Amino acid sequence: MPLFSTPFASLDLFRQPPQRDDPLQAFDAADEYLLNHLAEQGVTSETRLLLLNDSFGALAASLAGKAQVTSSGDSHLGALALANNLACNNLAADSVRFIPASQTVPGPFDWVLIRVPKTLALLEEQLIRLQGQLAPGARVVAAGMIKHLPRTAGDLLEQYIGPLQASLAVKKARLLFATPSAKTPVSSPYPSRYQLDSPRIELINHANVFCREGLDIGTRAFLPHLPQNLNDARVADLGCGNGVLGIACALANPNARLTLVDESYMAVQSAAENWRAALGERPVEIRPGDGLAEQAEDSLDLVLCNPPFHQQQVVGDFLAWRMFQQARAALVKGGELWIVGNRHLGYHAKLKRLFRGVEQVAANPKFVVLKAIK
């Protein structure tokens, strides 16, 4: 594992979730560029510093104990990675304050360092929330690898913070310097809303929710085929997003006991608000989580899942495979995992390696709905 060395520290850093022989690093040249710039400018133990979207804690762990560090992001896996990386490098757990993106981050801050996220709606929401949170003379710097740094990110910084200047490229990374200027306060356009016809519900979607402007086509293919007559079955909506699968299942099965889990704090926030709107005070567990890693073994009868095929900019089926393994562990014998996936991903073959029976429930030219029996 290569060390992440900057003027602030030399650290062993790990991604989350862990993968055996993981070829990917928990940091990149944009992290290094940001920290080198900060070191040139100088910080003290009194500097109030906000980090946004620090994926695996490379920035926060490097700055722990060097300034008053607050980190905020929308990934529960990122929060776990930060905690693990602090511990692995013998840094105090309370040397960084972590605040989920679903909550307001209280300032004021002298520095704001931003890793530009894949979802620019999240960046927009975060920039809007910085209104009134910047100390006099505050500096705002965003960073990203050039191939993942759209022009729109700079436009948002200029719109909500102030005049923008871009750095030269270093190791294919770039910094964007936004100079705070007086702005007319604006209201956030988030959350967004859309209506479903079946079931007839309205769904709200906070800024970082997948397909926040309308139902994604995989879920649309899954909804008509959700299992019925579940009685009081224990059901988990794994990777719940805005909660639509779990809510639809609950509406069709009045006695089912639901758990909704997602690694996005904004997804969990959206799912909780949507559940209350559709089902009132009906009991439910809705929580952020590393999939079903914290779910007791043999504690579920059914798992519903529309698995992701990427983590941030990295595409692959490693997260889906991990979810399938977690579902198998959490299910009772005879329990079922129901999933929807693109045909070309070959989930049928993968599920057969874990489950004793795999059946195709439905299919269209793009998607298949599969049932795997433990």
Automatic annotation (TrEMBL):
<dbReference type="Pfam" id="PF05175">
    <property type="entry name" value="MTS"/>
</dbReference>
<protein>
    <recommendedName>
        <fullName>Ribosomal RNA large subunit methyltransferase G</fullName>
        <ecNumber>2.1.1.174</ecNumber>
    </recommendedName>
</protein>
<dbReference type="GO" id="GO:0005737">
    <property type="term" value="C:cytoplasm"/>
</dbReference>
<keyword id="KW-0808">Transferase</keyword>
<dbReference type="InterPro" id="IPR017237">
    <property type="entry name" value="RLMG"/>
</dbReference>
<feature type="domain" description="Methyltransferase small">
    <location>
        <begin position="201"/>
        <end position="371"/>
    </location>
</feature>
<keyword id="KW-0698">rRNA processing</keyword>
<dbReference type="InterPro" id="IPR007848">
    <property type="entry name" value="Small_mtfrase_dom"/>
</dbReference>
<keyword id="KW-0949">S-adenosyl-L-methionine</keyword>
<feature type="domain" description="RlmG N-terminal">
    <location>
        <begin position="1"/>
        <end position="181"/>
    </location>
</feature>
<dbReference type="InterPro" id="IPR058679">
    <property type="entry name" value="RlmG_N"/>
</dbReference>
<dbReference type="Pfam" id="PF26049">
    <property type="entry name" value="RLMG_N"/>
</dbReference>
<dbReference type="InterPro" id="IPR046977">
    <property type="entry name" value="RsmC/RlmG"/>
</dbReference>
<dbReference type="InterPro" id="IPR002052">
    <property type="entry name" value="DNA_methylase_N6_adenine_CS"/>
</dbReference>
<keyword id="KW-0489">Methyltransferase</keyword>
<comment type="function">
    <text>Specifically methylates the guanine in position 1835 (m2G1835) of 23S rRNA.</text>
</comment>
<keyword id="KW-0963">Cytoplasm</keyword>
<dbReference type="GO" id="GO:0052916">
    <property type="term" value="F:23S rRNA (guanine(1835)-N(2))-methyltransferase activity"/>
</dbReference>
<dbReference type="GO" id="GO:0003676">
    <property type="term" value="F:nucleic acid binding"/>
</dbReference>
<dbReference type="InterPro" id="IPR029063">
    <property type="entry name" value="SAM-dependent_MTases_sf"/>
</dbReference>
<comment type="similarity">
    <text>Belongs to the methyltransferase superfamily. RlmG family.</text>
</comment>
